[in-house]
Amino acid sequence: MAIGVLALQGSFHEHVLALRRLGVHAIEVRKADQLEGLAGLIIPGGESTTMAKLANQYNLFPALKDFSTSGKPMWGTCAGLIFLADRATGLKDGGQELLGGLDCTVHRNFFGSQVNSFETELAVPALAASEGGPPRCRAVFIRAPAIVEFGSSVEQIADCEVPSFSAPPSLEGEMFTRRRVAVAVRQGNFLGTAFHPELTSDTRWHSYFVKMVQAFEEVAASSALVPQKFCCRNDSFEEMKDLPIFEGLVQEKIL
């Protein structure tokens, strides 16, 4: 069983490293034929418009759309979340093509510009119940989107207080009578996070996604051919020192 990471632009390498730390076979995906045989796919953070242009340039969108409708698990982080949303606002002039799948509206750059990037801790009881560890996680927001609306079939896994600098003019008013906004959701085999779990040493989000992939594989397999489970080595993450990747401004290659 292999999990792919779309490797056109952004923080794909960090996702690959996180998966490999869990003992998972991870493949960097740049061509349509590399999607064949994958059990799941991660779309990383980066610059969503640039990523969309590259996907069109390399004729990846048809294959990505086929993958998104196959039922196989997909996880979008930051820019990847925008890709997986059914609706997006705050896009650049001309918009961008979306894969869709998540019944939600995502606002691009909701939390402000690059200089407004920040780190915080999020309450994640559902993640802790599934993967163990503390009921909070470190979250890195880099020129990040947010989920401003979502359907009844979408489960909110984490929300975040809206910083005072982050109220986009297009969304001011009634929506901001509430001071929190969704930043992690799941709908069936789609997972979306507005932040960058791959930039910390806490691999519980990756372990959570791997278990989504395992569950899908088990359902899809015949009773006579059940795939062998593998163990996500996630119980020692508390002993690891956190990664000093994000201090102030993020590295240029992640932008």
UniProtKB/TrEMBL annotation:
GO terms for molecular function: glutaminase activity; lyase activity. L-glutamine binds at residues 46-48, 108, 142-143. GO terms for biological process: pyridoxal phosphate biosynthetic process; pyridoxine metabolic process. The active site is at 78 (nucleophile), 196 (charge relay system), 198 (charge relay system). Its EC number is 3.5.1.2. GO terms for cellular component: cytosol; glutaminase complex. InterPro entries: Class_I_gatase-like, PdxT/SNO, PdxT/SNO_CS. The keyword Ribonucleoprotein does not apply. The keyword Magnesium does not apply. This is glutaminase. It comes from Selaginella moellendorffii (Spikemoss).
